[in-house]
């Protein structure tokens, strides 16, 4: 009592302080979103150092993402008043990579080993599979890689795979191939990502001296987001924490309601097992949420109450100043309007002095970013995609664009070169080199060289067949443009060229998302009258980068938003089949649906002050529109915490009278004045308002200018800074 409480503890509530002051023995901090779990972990780190219980190098702190690791390092540094260095602080994989470098010899590697990426992994596995003569159509190597990864996630080296866990994949040869694959990796002094944890865990299991060494080093272990650990991570933690003598000083923080990675092998049961595995474990519950307003909190609590089998936690508002606004539910017509409403609201928030960095748009799936990106870009609102790439920069999108560019203009050599061997057609660098030579002598493009070589018989065997097939695909698609339109043509081209099949055959976790992106791309093309128009649009959109401001709106997936917080959170696409996802609905039963609901809970609880949920009445599937139902999660939020606006019948049912800044915006006035939105539908093409010669327009890139010529949707504009340019009408605002 005589010693004053240090400053960094004063700012905590009694339970949080308890969670920090119980320094010895196993500790589980079980608490809902925004209760300060991560803050407790960070403060605990500093506390251990400041009270002389450990040196920085004696604390092992595991975070879920590299970003979280960086933040924790900064927060610890701030509390300590100096940069924290030499820490064992990072993701499971990062820490394991460092450990494996020290002990590589125990698993037959040397410390200079390399880590393979997915492509190399697959190439190697294919080589290894050869002697088995597996029918790779039936048993795609990618899928086998998945089987192997799941074994690794569960800590199963080839020797530990029992008959019960064996897979009948590849006619029962999976295990033998797994063994051969591991042997080959070792022979090459390399390992894959999954091996980082597998090897280290194996070393800790079998080398008592190494384990003892780490028991001496790590006096304290801290783990964030414990609910999302998988089996191997759990085994690894348990090995490190359970010491021969002395207590297990392991503190894990988690929230069963935020377990959202079961699809990657995470086992929420690890939380339930904690007290059994670590006898004498203390459990601290934090109940005060300091992040969100009362309204948001109550809405999120009401939603998650629909899940069964929860551990049950109380969540009370921690700030007494924060009654806040209700959760906004906005019904819109379609995804264009959705993007428009969100972007306008963002602009209004900025106008009212809110920082863009305090605004996030969180979606269920990566492909959903596209309409928001385009809209934000057009309005000059800077954004960043967190944990991913901008839509038009994603590699599968770039591939598809290259196909389209060749279709639109056969002389686009750069585009042709990108796709000539994607998917793999056996057209190697040498063949392409020859094409270049021929093209030069013909003084024409690569496609002309191909045609000339095909007719001249210069090409042989596999590459002849491959190139002939590719050119056929282009020719057929070209004919289809005239008859059935460019959307069908592009889709057929991607099909005939084998490009779509390439991703269908790909069993990596990213593949379905890539196909979703491509579908979204096809939707986007449908919004334009012709392929060249669309390509011009894309070129412009991609060109509009270059803003270096730090203050940006964050776009990311719900999964990627875990642990983060923002003043304002937009949650678009709350519709059955989008969120909850179609996959979760198809699976039937409650398991997948409950995980979606947890994801919704994660989304809502990212918001400090404002949460805005949107749902569209219909979504475009190519040129058609499909009606969609509002997500059941909307219904599940207790009515007293929401405020509904928009025009769908679903909304009218419990529409509230109180207007809000979001309800009165573009929905009632339809669109911000003076701004001409891009044509939302093909049908609107001919009827849309036209911009005449003499009009003053504003273009996001070239600034203000006067229209000097107009032809359909193409304008010739004399810009103040930039001179005369041809641009698309959908890209300019009318100023007068
Ligand atoms: P999540 O479950 O989303 O990961 P969390 O439990 O880790 O959330 P934190 O991110 O640590 O929660 O904290 C949420 C917010 O509340 C942060 O802005 C944090 O600074 C603030 N906070 C935590 N504890 C207190 C406190 N005692 N007083 C004031 N603010 C607090
Ligand atoms: Mg956290």
From TrEMBL:
This is DNA 3'-5' helicase. Belongs to the helicase family. UvrD subfamily. Residues 294-563 form the UvrD-like helicase C-terminal domain. Has both ATPase and helicase activities. Unwinds DNA duplexes with 3' to 5' polarity with respect to the bound strand and initiates unwinding most effectively when a single-stranded region is present. Involved in the post-incision events of nucleotide excision repair and methyl-directed mismatch repair. It catalyses: Couples ATP hydrolysis with the unwinding of duplex DNA by translocating in the 3'-5' direction; ATP + H2O = ADP + phosphate + H(+). ATP binds at residues 31-38. GO terms for cellular component: cytosol; DNA helicase complex. GO terms for molecular function: 3'-5' DNA helicase activity; ATP binding; ATP hydrolysis activity; DNA binding. It comes from Gluconobacter wancherniae NBRC 103581.
């Amino acid at each position: 009592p005589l010693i004053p409480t240090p400053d960094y503890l004063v700012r905590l509530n009694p339970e949080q302080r308890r969670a920090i002051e119980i320094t010895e023995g196993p500790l589980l901090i079980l608490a809902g979103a925004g209760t300060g779990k991560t803050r407790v972990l960070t403060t605990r780190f500093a506390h251990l150092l400041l009270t002389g219980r450990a040196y920085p190098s004696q604390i092992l702190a595991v975070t879920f993402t590299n970003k979280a690791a960086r933040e924790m390092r900064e927060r610890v540094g701030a509390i300590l008043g100096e940069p924290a260095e030499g820490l064992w602080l990072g993701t499971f994989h990062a820490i394991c990579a460092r450990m494996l470098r020290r002990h590589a010899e125990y698993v037959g590697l040397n410390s200079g080993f390399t880590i393979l990426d997915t492509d190399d992994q697959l190439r190697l596995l294919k080589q290894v599979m050869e002697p088995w003569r597996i029918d790779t159509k039936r048993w795609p190597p990618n899928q086998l890689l998945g089987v192997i990864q799941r074994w690794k996630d569960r800590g199963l080296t080839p020797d530990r795979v029992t008959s019960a866990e064996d897979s009948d994949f590849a006619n029962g040869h999976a295990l033998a191939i797994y063994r051969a694959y591991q042997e080959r990796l070792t022979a090459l002094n390399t390992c894959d990502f999954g091996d980082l944890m597998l090897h280290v865990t194996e070393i800790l299991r079998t080398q008592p001296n190494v384990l003892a060494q780490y028991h001496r080093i790590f006096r304290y272990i801290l783990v964030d987001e414990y609910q999302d650990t998988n089996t191997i991570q759990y085994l690894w933690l348990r090995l490190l924490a359970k010491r021969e003598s002395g207590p297990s000083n392991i503190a894990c923080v988690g929230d069963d309601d935020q377990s959202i990675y079961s699809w990657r092998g995470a086992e929420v049961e690890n939380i339930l097992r904690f007290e059994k595995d670590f006898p004498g474990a203390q459990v601290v519950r934090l109940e005060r949420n300091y992040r969100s307003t009362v309204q948001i909190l109550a809405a999120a609590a009401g939603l998650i109450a629909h899940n069964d089998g929860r551990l049950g936690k109380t969540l009370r508002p921690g700030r007494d100043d924060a009654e806040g606004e209700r959760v906004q539910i906005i019904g819109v017509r379609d995804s264009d309007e959705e993007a428009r409403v969100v972007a306008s609201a963002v602009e209004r928030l900025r106008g009212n002095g809110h920082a863009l960095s305090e605004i996030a748009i969180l979606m269920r799936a990566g492909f959903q970013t596209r309409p928001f990106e385009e809209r934000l870009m057009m309005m000059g609102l800077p954004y960043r995609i967190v944990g991913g790439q901008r839509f038009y920069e994603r590699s599968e999108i770039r591939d598809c664009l290259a196909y389209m560019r060749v279709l639109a203009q056969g002389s686009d050599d750069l585009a042709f070169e990108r796709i000539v061997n994607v998917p793999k057609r056996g057209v190697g660098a040498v063949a392409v080199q020859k094409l270049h030579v021929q093209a030069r002598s013909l003084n024409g493009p690569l496609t002309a060289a191909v045609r000339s070589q095909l007719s001249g018989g210069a090409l042989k065997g596999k590459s002849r067949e491959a190139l002939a097939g590719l050119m056929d695909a282009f020719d057929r698609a070209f004919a289809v443009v005239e008859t059935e339109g460019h959307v069908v043509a592009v889709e057929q081209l991607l099909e005939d060229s084998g490009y779509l099949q390439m991703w269908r055959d790909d069993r990596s976790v990213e593949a379905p998302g890539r196909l979703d992106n491509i579908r979204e791309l096809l939707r986007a093309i449908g919004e334009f009258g012709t392929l060249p128009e669309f390509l011009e649009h894309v070129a412009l959109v991609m060109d509009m980068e270059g803003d270096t401001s730090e203050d940006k709106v964050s776009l990311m997936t719900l999964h990627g938003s875990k642990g983060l917080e923002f003043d304002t959170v937009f949650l678009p696409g709350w519709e059955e089949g989008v969120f909850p996802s179609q996959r979760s609905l198809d699976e039937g039963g409650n398991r997948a649906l409950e995980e979606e609901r947890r994801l919704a809970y994660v989304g809502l609880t990212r918001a400090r002050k404002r949460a805005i949920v949107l749902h569209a009445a219909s979504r475009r599937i190519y040129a058609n529109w499909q009606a969609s139902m509002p997500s059941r999660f909307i219904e599940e939020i207790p009515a007293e915490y929401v405020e509904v606006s928009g025009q769908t019948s679903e909304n009218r049912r419990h529409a509230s009278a109180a207007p809000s800044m979001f309800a009165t915006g573009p929905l009632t006035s339809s669109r911000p004045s003076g701004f001409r939105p891009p044509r939302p539908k093909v049908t609107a093409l001919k009827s849309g308002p036209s911009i005449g010669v003499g009009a003053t327009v504003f273009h996001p890139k070239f600034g203000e200018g006067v229209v000097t010529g107009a032809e359909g949707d193409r304008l010739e504009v004399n810009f103040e800074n930039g001179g005369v340019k041809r641009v698309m009408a959908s890209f300019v605002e009318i100023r007068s």
